[in-house]
Write a structure and sequence with these properties.
The structure is a homodimer.
Chain A (H helix, E strand, L loop, with lengths): L4 H13 L2 H8 L3 H15 L4 E4 L3 E4 L1 H29 L3 E7 L4 H12 L6 E7 L2 H9 L5 E5 L9 E7 L2 E5 L12 H4 L4 E4 L2 H10 L9 E5 L2 H9 L5 E3 L14 E5 L7 E7 L6 H15 L3 H4 L6
Parallel strand pairs in A: 3-4, 3-5, 8-9
Antiparallel strand pairs in A: 1-2, 5-12, 6-12, 7-10, 7-11
Chain B binds a DNA duplex through α3.
Family (chains A, B): Belongs to the LysR transcriptional regulatory family.
InterPro entries (chains A, B): HTH-type_LysR_regulators (IPR050950), LysR_HTH_N (IPR000847), LysR_subst-bd (IPR005119), WH-like_DNA-bd_sf (IPR036388), WH_DNA-bd_sf (IPR036390)
Protein name (chains A, B): Hca operon transcriptional activator
Chain lengths: 309, 309
DNA sequence: TGCTTATCTCGGAATTTGTGATGTTATTGT
DNA sequence: ACAATAACATCACAAATTCCGAGATAAGCA
């Protein structure tokens, strides 16, 4: 590796100018550095490449021209490598790989994309639904560029922005007696049969909500998908506590559900966006910004239900 | 130029091994050097390229793999540049450019080439007849790889091997009265009308040969090509003094000439081979060797005439 | 002959690269 | 749960390299 790119650059610009001094001026270095770069190239190949004529500058011989051509080619490749690398960071092209543990992500992600991706763009999205741990592992392993996940239970090494804190709300069938109240209490909920969203963090979180209550709601069903929970509720199998809300009250089963805030003061779940905050690719940066803006404006009033509103 | 080839090499071998330690072992450097090389590459693009997991080694993310691929490509190009450069020096391919001030070069150069070039080879010969100064200028300017020239009057900066020292000989028509002598003397020559080879060094050299004689040969003609001199001699216009001898006594005019050594002790002309002796291309080196061997063996007995033989 | 324009040389300064020791973190086996 | 092990991270220092600047040298030019 004695022959460095720097030496090649000095060498080629010197040949280009036919003068060590001029090359040095253009490169903003001392002439002796250029001279020694030429020496280095010649030493590398153990060939005389340049005829140095005092007071007349330098001139390549045939082999020198040949080597210079090859070096310039390599330098071109190098420059385009740098440019491609910069593109990788700066451009809006490429693949954006997102892992999410956010059951209602379909309710907002399309709108986020709309905000920062042109209608026709060179971006390929890779969306992967997973659980909180998989998401964090994937981010740390470089599988995902960004993850949407629940900040409760975040690993120390993950960098993230908080998008929204979502307090729990109560979900009931449209025929439920509590449907006419503006808010419900945990005490009221505790008497209802409950459909529990049985996913990593959620299950213990919902469990914890009852810890200050004298009685706990009986569990009518466990289901590990949000839509199954909603549909079971709509079908009258029980009620549920969830945190984030799709934009429709209709469910897969055909019947609607009704959501009401809970008046008790309860810990919310935090939806967070994890990504490389120190040096993100441009597209990741833009995605993060779009997420933040989405939840700073339209988001909160649509996907969460708060009793303080 | 912050991103050096070395950094790229360390980076790519680290990714290849999935381990900084193993890469360091292979590269025979400290692990910290590899680690910092990775840092350099990441800093250059301001991107996270590698996930470093303690106790488990390293793993590239998508961008890292991308960059690594590009870097490996550049390294490949670099390696082939080095190889091509080495070929330039070592291989028998390419163009061999020879300038010569040696009027009878056609008498021996073909045999020299036979000795070191395979019947079918990738070598292109560029042979250029010129005078002594042009030859030396061309060598210094890199126009020629090697020159055959007369060492008398050599520039100080030219490196050369002496191929043969050629004493002057006497050339006469086949009908000449002196043809039956084994040798002739300068005193005898001084009475003959002379055909003088009128070329840069030769003219003054032949002039000088008479300086110790009481009388000088009358000049019947000046001619600036050897074959014209020989043909004039064959046609009976006079005699000549030359130094090197073709392998035929026939001349273009159709008649033969007869050569005889001169018994006086006279300064010879030195045929020399000038080239880059410090770091020649392989093919130039080989050519030089072939020239030396040619004149060390078959050459002296064929192209020169000595009265000492 | 003297002036100008170049390259060459060389010592020392600045920068970069590499080392080795030490610390931190994660995995693995008991 | 704990110890042993395997990696990577960091840091101060050493080594090597690069670069500068000043003088020396050589060639062209008037």
């Amino acid at each position: 590796m004695a022959l460095t790119l720097k030496a090649m650059e000095y060498f080629t610009t010197a040949l280009h100018h036919g003068s060590i001094v001029k090359a040095a001026a253009e490169l903003n270095i001392a002439a002796s550095a250029v001279s020694s770069a030429i020496d280095q190239v010649e030493a590398e190949f153990d060939l005389t490449l340049v005829i140095r004529q005092r007071a007349r500058g330098i001139q390549p011989n045939a082999a020198g021209r040949d080597v210079a051509r090859k070096c310039e080619h390599l330098l071109d490749e190098y420059r385009s490598l740098l440019i491609e690398g910069a593109e990788l960071k700066k451009s809006h092209k490429g693949t954006l790989r997102i892992g999410y543990y956010a059951p209602i992500a379909p309710a907002f992600l399309p709108q986020v994309f709309e905000a920062f991706l042109p209608n026709t763009s060179d971006v390929t999205l890779e969306l992967e639904e997973c659980n909180n741990d998989e998401a964090q592992d994937g981010l740390l392993a470089g599988t995902y560029d960004a993850i949407l996940f629940v900040a409760e239970g975040v690993r120390p090494s993950i960098e993230y922005d908080t998008l929204v804190t979502a307090p729990p709300y109560f979900l009931m069938p449209s025929s439920h007696p509590l449907k006419d109240q503006r808010t419900v209490t945990m005490a009221q909920i505790a008497t209802e049969p409950l459909i529990v969203l049985n996913r990593p963090i959620a299950a213990s979180y919902y469990e914890g909500l009852f810890q200050s209550e004298t009685r706990k709601a009986p569990v009518a069903a466990y289901a590990n998908s949000t839509e199954m929970v909603r549909s079971l509720v709509a079908a009258g199998r029980g009620c549920a506590i969830l945190n984030m809300l799709p934009l429709t009250s209709e469910t897969y089963v055909g019947a609607p559900v009704i959501a009401r805030p809970i008046s008790d003061s309860l810990p919310p779940l935090t939806l967070a966006l994890g990504y490389d905050r120190m040096r993100p690719r441009r597209i990741v940066q833009d995605f993060a910004k779009a997420c933040q803006e989405h939840f700073a404006t339209v988001g909160p009033t649509r996907c969460i239900i708060s009793h303080e509103e």
